[in-house]
Amino acid sequence: MKTWLVALGAASIASVVVPAGSAWASVSVFATAPDDPAAVTVKAKGDGRADDTAALQAAIDAAAAKPGGGLVFLPSGRYRISKTLFLWPGVRVFGVGATRPVIELGDRTAGFQKGVANMVIFAGAKRDPARRVPFPVPGSVPFDKAIADANSGTFYSAMANIDFKIGDGNPAATAIRFHAAQHAFVSHMEFDIGSGLAGLYQVGNEAEDLHFKGGRYGILAEKTSPAWGFVLLDSTFEGQRDAAIREHEAGLTLVNVTLRDTPVGIEIDRGYGDWLWGKDVRFENVSKAGVVISNENNVYTQVGFDNAVASNTPVFARFRDSGKTEAGKGKAYRVSSFTHGLTLPGLGQVGAYKTDMKAETLPGLPARRTPAIRALPPVADWVNVRTLGAKGDNATDDTAAVQKAIDAHRVVYFPTGFYRVADTLKLRPDTVLIGLHPSLTQIVLPDRTEGYQGAGAPKALVASADKGDNIVFGLGLNTGGINPRATALLWTAGANSLVDDVKFQGGHGTNLYDGERFNPYNANATADADPAKRWAGQYPSLWVTNGGGGTFANIWSPSTYAYSGIYVSDTQTPGYIYQASVEHHVRTEISLNRVANWELLAPQTEEEAGEGEDTVSLEIRDSRDILVANYHGYRVTRTRRPAAAAVKVYNSQDIRFRNVAVNGESGFSTCDESGCATFLRLTKYPYENAIQDVTSGLEARERQFAVLDLTAHPSPVTPSIFPAGARIEKLGDGFFSLGGGAVDAAGTLYFTDRRHQRIYSWSDARKLSIVRDNTLDPINLAVDGSGNLLVLSSDGRDGTVYSFKPGSPDTEVAVIAPTPAADHAGAATVLPVNWWNNAEFKDQLDPETYQFTTLAQLFARDMALPKAKEYVSPDGSLALPAYRVFQQGPPDYRGLRFSDSLDTYGFTTAKPGQRVFVANSSENKTYSGLVGPQGEVTDLKVFADRGGESVATDPEGRVYVANGQVFVYAPDGRELGRIDVPERPLQLVFGGADKRTLFVLTHHALYAVRGR
């Protein structure tokens, strides 16, 4: 009999042997309960007959009552539930005992027959009936409007070593709604879905060792709540009725995943794309298609596979819209490489949509690879550091006790607690350190610890053994804010080593010993409240160096006091990063220096407004043979400063980028008298470019693409110009960030520089002039028929609109009050030229049809909404609809305001009944639409599959779209050519005396494009 040798991954026992072709063995990875007096143990019947819902929820509630959450141990047994269980933030539930506990939904349980009904919901906050919830979590049984959905701030929640079974007659049932953020995970589970809808509905962060049997789907998901990727490792799907995975925009990364006996392996929903990357994925007996790809000519569709194998899977990829297919190569075959999406031939070049598949026939499928996540030792081998003298009370110096435990025992286990140390903890070659909650179990270096002060070489809080076989799992490492020589984890261990579920504390999401959330900011978020705690004043948090390597999974590194979150240097030992969230550093998030043979799968970075104004997301120096896949680098809405590029590369080669998403949007919640809501807004300051090769001076302006290979000597690029013979001239530079441009009847251009609160003008006669420099926060401009400037300002709760005549005394400012929308004969409507709308924080699944509302439908719906009020220019020739303004933060100078009209790079105008061109950045498309009397735009039609920051038309009706460069289209939509501008174009406006001068506004300069 053939066998599989299976290592079960994090928190597991030793390898087991499973008969080939059988269901995956449901083996308990906690054969005994770890020793932690603070943990809550479930007290329930567990006999499969009694209703244990209340007992399970009571245990979770008890753990959540403790500051920062807690641990729950669920003993072996069969626990029948009849209602939804809510897992509160920071609570982790672990099954314990010789057999895995099973949570069961009995046959035909009331409430699980229609729509989506979840057995377990990862919730965003503990129940508070007095609190207004922005979006009550859907799918609870019974529905509870006081429960908030998990969101981008839901940290540390987890479930592991628990199986789920859905009984007959529950077609709406899903096991877990897993909609959470950093350091949330589900692992070591088997889902017997049976009649149910799915094992997981919604996904977030990371999952390991999951095995889905039956059901309509194994996973059914939309975009994750924090809007970055989800990583699934070492898992299987078997026997789903429709598809193993159905999803869109989930940022899905699959490593060592098998999909078998199902019509479709992975289905991307109609009208959507995804950032989908698969490594070592197996398709077995997949009858219709391994992957169904939708929205195929869109930048948000990025699909790639590395070393996939298939058997009895005649179609590897099917394209929903065009009907094209990529057939397999025989009964059994290997796909060494598959990519689809916007493919860049090189830096400085514009991409094209391509599909590339390299496949070969095999005589049969090879053996399944070893797991990506190696097994931890069995619980019986864990030695409790408390029994060896450590206190973990956040007061006692535990250095000697912990080091003694490491010196004497291979596996050292840390129950929840804060273990203060004053010197480096040095691991032996085979040391394993284990915790179960990186927020509640921290190794802490107090501020001003002797030996970590002043200038000098890095000094580690924890140091691996050189070439060691070390594992660090489930711990928080905190180096404080006043220890300049500190690095939290200095890693020189070998290729088989593992760092998993580790949080580098000290920044966002850090809970203190008393459970209070640490705040790293002063009042206006420009530094720490304690001036002695210097941002970027320490060595990197995770430093892999001097031949170090191994696997790094589910890492969160947001300490602003470190100058980099992950730094890899001087190594050619293979390294693998699977899902790392690296955020809030001043200099770099992730840095590679003299590195080879590394793969970064699903790295995510985030830049905050205070510390991230000049941060480089990923820096690669003097390195080679690097793969970066499903990379997500973004800057938050609050950002107020431009930055040149997310990735900077120096003297490096053979750098392979697959599935790149560089963006600048984030969500926030707001409440008013009508209730609360959560919104996604688009910043004007995402990274200008995705990648900049500093050595060659070339850059990749496409922010979303599927393929780019960096070579040692990239080819020079000849700029394009349309029409041939036209000239580009720089009219002025040295600006901070331009926008809001508009022209008057004479062709004079007016525009703003927001940081300096100035309004400028340009005409060929007067050149550059300062029109106003009052501190009235001008954002966007329009000019009425009489030459009055209509100025939209972000000042005031709902924003402010004021007007003045250029050339008038600076004391003349007329504030315009909003009035009810009305018909104005002959008046033009002022509209944002670029939009962002994708309903980020609300489920789009129709519970009746199980179809998703598409982005195009969402955009059309919201554009068609009339506006109740408007701002009318002094002469009555312009009407600016009053778009709803959302406020984030305190209602004072620190508060930020967002709206469609404030967020856009500029305005466009058209009269009701005319068609207007607008860009939808959330789809990367340009639309034309019919303007209505109250600012609504209907009859939307896609004009071009590019839609970035701006769009403008010339007197001949040609359409110019700013999207990295300026793309020129004929009135019928044919692409005519391109204008390459030295900097990224942000707003396009035609002006000049004959209205044939194309003004191009970038952040720092003003350009003009003039014909022959």
What does this structure look like?
- With 1012 residues, this protein is mainly β.
- The protein has 4 domains: 37-205, 3 Solenoid (Pectate Lyase C-like), CATH 2.160.20.10; 227-372, no CATH class; 379-710, Pectate Lyase C-like; 735-957, Thrombin, subunit H, CATH 2.40.10.500.
- It has 4 helices and 80 strands.
- The strands form 11 sheets. The protein has a 25-stranded mixed sheet that branches.
- The longest helix has 12 residues, at 53-64.
- It is globular, with a radius of gyration of 29 Å.
Short account of what is shown:
The chain is mostly beta strands. The protein is built from four helices and 80 strands.
Number of helices: 4
Helix content: under 10%
Main sheet properties = 25 strands, mixed
Structural class, judged by helices and strands?
Answer: mainly beta
Beta-strand level of the residues, as a percent range?
over 45%
Overall spatial form? globular
Rg measurement, Å: 29 Å
Provide the domain count: 4
**Oligomeric state of this protein:** single chain
Unreliable spans are 1-25, 670-678
Distance between the termini: 79 Å
**What is the average of the pLDDT values?**
93
How many strand elements? Answer: 80
CATH topology of the largest domain: Pectate Lyase C-like
CATH architecture identity of the largest domain = 3 Solenoid
CATH class of the largest domain: Mainly Beta
Full CATH superfamily name of the largest domain: Single-stranded right-handed beta-helix, Pectin lyase-like
